[in-house]
């Protein structure tokens, strides 16, 4: 695949492009994205599994699935903008 020298050159180029200060932030956001992708894939697999009883299927169908932001995540929707549930005049 890649040798040590190729990986070192790639790492140097990445540091030059993004800068050393941005790398931890990029790694953090990539990790957060990977966790979200993993949890969504797991949820899709569990949704595709056939329910064991009819009662379990009716409970899952009536409960909406809510995606929440991580604690401390400030990249949400601004509060001064109306959402889909706000009537417009």
UniProtKB/TrEMBL annotation:
Swiss-Prot/TrEMBL keywords: Cell membrane, Membrane, Protein transport, Translocation, Transmembrane, Transmembrane helix, Transport
Source organism phylogeny: Bacteria, Bacillati, Actinomycetota, Actinomycetes, Kitasatosporales
Region (Disordered): 41-89
Protein name: Sec-independent protein translocase protein TatA
Similarity section: Belongs to the TatA/E family.
Subunit structure: The Tat system comprises two distinct complexes: a TatABC complex, containing multiple copies of TatA, TatB and TatC subunits, and a separate TatA complex, containing only TatA subunits. Substrates initially bind to the TatABC complex, which probably triggers association of the separate TatA complex to form the active translocon.
Low complexity bias: start-end ranges: 49-64
Residue spans crossing the bilayer: none
Transcription regulation is among the record's keywords: no
Source superkingdom: Bacteria
Subcellular location: Cell membrane
Membrane topology according to the record: Single-pass membrane protein
The protein's role, per its UniProt record: Part of the twin-arginine translocation (Tat) system that transports large folded proteins containing a characteristic twin-arginine motif in their signal peptide across membranes. TatA could form the protein-conducting channel of the Tat system.
Gene3D superfamilies, sorted: 1.20.5.3310
InterPro entries: TatA/B/E, TatA/E
